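Why do we bother with a discrete structure alphabet at all? Because it lets us treat a fold like text: something you can write down, compare, and reason about line by line. To make this less abstract, here is a complete entry for CDP-diacylglycerol--glycerol-3-phosphate 3-phosphatidyltransferase. Read it the way you would read a sentence in a foreign language you are learning: slowly, and without expecting to understand everything at once.
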Amino acid sequence: MNLPNKLTVVRLTIIPFFLLLMVLPLKSWGAISFWGATIPVSQFIAAILFIAATLTDNLDGRIARKHHLVTNFGKFTDPLADKLLVMTAFIVLTGNQVVPAWVTSIIIWRELSVTGLRLLLVEQDGVVLAAKMPGKIKTTTQFIAIIFLLLNNVIFAIWGIPFGQIMLYICLFFTIYSGVDYFIQGRDVFSDGFK
């Protein structure tokens, strides 16, 4: 269990605590107001946990590549942890009526479809479909959208700018675009179905 794998496990461990903070009725904890936004304390703590989890995502990959600590455990759990974190956040935000259900449905559909495609490619050709720039932009914009939706558009709320919602639709665009891009790259895996 090297350091990158430990960071991935930390990210997986954060997810249930994030979920509990978002769904349990913890209104007695009160709310805090700063930079134009009023945020329930439990939601603020959940946002801090989400930010910590996103930082470990960036860090574990860098450490693994730099120090040649790439393992099968890491290859499996790192993308799994990312997807579980993002899907949990979007489902909770949909339950709280912050994100439309159709947006969350598209995001989950894309994540599961691309994961299935990657599994097929590995099984058939031993090819690992690496993340390209649209996929990296998708992940970054998803993280930014979720953070500002959790923090009720902090800073931007001063000017009445719905920054989190704007980022949500930008991330939706890149979610769809990168998903289509992955399927174009991996289209040969389905060639036997059209013979």
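What the structure line is telling us, in plain words: The radius of gyration is 18 Å. The beta strands are 31-34, 37-40.
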